[in-house]
């Protein structure tokens, strides 16, 4: 597990300095405990990664979920949580389909199907599954807007679908049961906000409010351009512009590392905000997260170059 720095007490910036945000509302002891737990969950998630991880984090699918959450006026937390829930559900659901007892003829047909064909097979209910993941994610952030069955049904009907409330309920139950009700999945949003909170406690000079705003924008951009950004990061890591399939497969754990993504996003955002020497930010992030300064700097620079290049995420 990564080393996690002790949060220094007595240096809280206080909620009154940033009334629009919740930063500074928790005790340093509780914050430290939460940071340790977040790091443990991230490491545990990386150890148990499916080899198909990332298969359902396609740019257009992520964009659709983000737009859906915006349309429903949901908190930013919900969009990232919904993406992670959908990804994990689809992988586990398809793996169960492949491993379930079937007639030999049916099993041979299923084995011949690739991931793409299986997605096509389930496309009739795919929008419903997405909506269910958004519903579940919204309930995890219960102090914000919650998408109940009535809201979900009305929205789906506005898109021309003829689902009933029973369909929505069954879809939500299918996802919950498939995931064994383990839906509070680590997301880069949670990691980013937690790290920013710790930075604010450890150094009151950090403009958390502004850094938070920029970081959320950068995180959204990185999620929508994740393919290009991680491809560039891989090429830099292996010092080769043509990575092999094996190198790409081994790199999956890097792409799914929420802590690495969070520090990279904050590092890039701090460079944009330019409130203090960048080396100091790298040092702060490394001491909090356990990620090396070199890795943070490398990833942040890849993100910044992508932002400056303005490459479209529609791939």
UniProtKB/TrEMBL annotation:
Gene Ontology annotations of biological process type: reciprocal meiotic recombination
InterPro entries registered for this protein in UniProt: Cyclin-like_sf (IPR036915)
Gene3D superfamilies in the record: Cyclin-like
Domain of life of the organism encoding this protein: Eukaryota
Gene Ontology CC entries for this record: site of double-strand break
Protein name, entry field: Cyclin N-terminal domain-containing protein 1-like protein
Origin species: Callorhinchus milii
């Amino acid at each position: 597990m990564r080393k996690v720095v002790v949060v220094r007490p007595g240096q809280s910036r206080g909620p009154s300095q940033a009334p629009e945000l919740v930063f500074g509302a928790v005790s340093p002891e509780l914050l430290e405990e939460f940071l340790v737990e977040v790091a443990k969950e991230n490491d545990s998630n990386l150890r148990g990664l499916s080899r198909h991880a990332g298969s359902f984090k396609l740019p257009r699918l992520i964009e659709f979920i983000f737009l859906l959450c915006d349309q429903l006026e949901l908190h930013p937390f919900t969009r990232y949580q919904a993406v992670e829930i959908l990804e994990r559900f689809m992988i586990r659901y398809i793996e169960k389909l492949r491993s379930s007892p079937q007639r030999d003829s049916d099993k041979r047909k299923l084995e011949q199907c690739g991931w793409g064909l299986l997605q096509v097979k389930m496309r009739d209910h795919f929008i419903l599954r997405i909506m269910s993941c958004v519903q579940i994610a919204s309930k995890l952030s219960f102090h914000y807007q919650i998408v109940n069955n009535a809201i979900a049904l009305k929205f789906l009907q506005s898109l021309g679908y003829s689902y009933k409330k029973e369909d929505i309920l069954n879809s939500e139950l299918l996802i919950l049961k498939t995931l064994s009700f383990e839906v509070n999945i680590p997301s880069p949003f949670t990691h980013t906000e937690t790290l920013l909170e710790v930075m604010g406690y450890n150094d009151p000079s950090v403009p958390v409010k502004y850094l938070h705003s920029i970081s959320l924008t950068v995180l959204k951009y990185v999620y929508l351009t994740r393919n290009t950004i991680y491809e560039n990061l891989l090429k830099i890591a292996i010092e080769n512009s043509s990575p092999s399939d094996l190198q790409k497969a081994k790199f999956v754990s890097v792409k799914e590392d929420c802590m690495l993504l969070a520090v990279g996003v904050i590092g890039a955002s701090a460079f944009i905000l330019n409130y203090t020497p960048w080396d100091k930010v790298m040092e702060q992030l490394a001491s909090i997260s356990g990620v090396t300064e070199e890795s943070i700097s490398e990833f942040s620079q890849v993100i910044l170059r992508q932002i400056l290049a303005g490459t479209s995420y529609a791939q």
